[in-house]
Write a structure and sequence with these properties.
By secondary structure, the chain is α/β, with parallel strands linked by helices. The protein has helices at residues 6-12, 34-39, 62-75, 93-98, 114-122, 152-161, 178-191; strands spanning 49-55, 81-85, 106-110, 138-139, 166-172, 194-200, 212-219, 222-229, 237-241.
């Protein structure tokens, strides 16, 4: 091996190659929280690969943890897409804009019923999927693909992760098996994309091929994070207060 060879250095950055923490420091994506950057194995979110947020209930602060990084990605000169797959609620555009997220780089894929359609119409900051010029902003139904009898969002998540067109893909899936997680991780590596999967906390007992798993518990003015799996020996909890609290 030639020391300093850029081709070797790029090869060693591949997420499929695991090395000792002291031997290979990866440049993570800054989270926007200094204490969290210090806590995470890569000094931030991994830029490639699948991570899991295990929450007792959705809305525990998991999106607040991600929004600063999404703002950074969407503001980049050569920004790719940031895609939300099957979110439980329609993203509130004004809140994302206030946090610095560029909406032109955001797409939503999911099932949109009449109630959600009304929310699109009520907020001029959100484009209805059927009127969007984005090929990634679309809808799917439970009957879209007979190969996926469980959650059609798994298919959409996997295809988007592996497309090579996205910097980040966030997914809320109902039914996920270990083999599905493995497929999603491989798709994220193939597309060189950060994949974020939100799952119920009870899934912590299940095996996972994700590169990072975090338990998220809401606190009065922040969250408690625990690394369940990652390129780190740390298993202590981090109590992270929200700014200004």
């Amino acid at each position: 091996m030639v020391v300093g060879d850029p081709k070797i250095a790029r090869l060693l950055e591949h997420p499929a190659i695991w090395r000792g923490r002291s031997a290979a420091q990866r440049a993570g994506l800054p989270t926007g929280f200094a204490a969290l950057d210090e806590y995470l194995p890569d000094g931030g979110w991994p830029r490639t690969g699948l991570i899991e947020f295990l929450v007792s209930r959705f809305g525990s602060g998991e999106l607040t943890l991600l929004v600063p990084a999404l703002a950074t990605l969407t503001r980049a000169v050569a920004a790719r897409w940031c895609v939300w797959v099957a979110p439980p609620l329609v993203p509130f555009a004004p809140a994302l804009v206030s946090c610095g997220v560029v909406l032109d780089r955001v797409a939503v894929v999911g099932t949109f019923g009449a109630r959600q359609d009304a929310r699109f119409r009520a907020d001029p900051g959100i484009d209805h999927p059927s009127k969007s010029r984005s090929p990634l902003l679309t809808t799917f139904s439970d009957q879209q693909d007979a190969r996926f009898r469980g959650d059609p969002g798994i298919w959409a998540f996997e295809q988007t992760l592996g497309s090579g067109a996205c910097d980040a893909v966030l997914g809320w899936l109902r039914l996920v098996k270990a083999r599905d997680i493995r497929r999603l991780q491989l798709a994220a590596e193939r597309g060189r994309t950060l994949g974020v999967l939100f799952r119920p906390r009870r899934a912590a007992r299940e095996a996972s091929a994700a590169v990072l798993r975090l338990s998220v518990e809401p606190l009065l003015a922040g969250v408690r994070l625990t690394i369940l799996k990652g390129r780190s020996a740390r298993r202590d909890a981090l109590d992270l207060p929200w700014p200004g609290s």
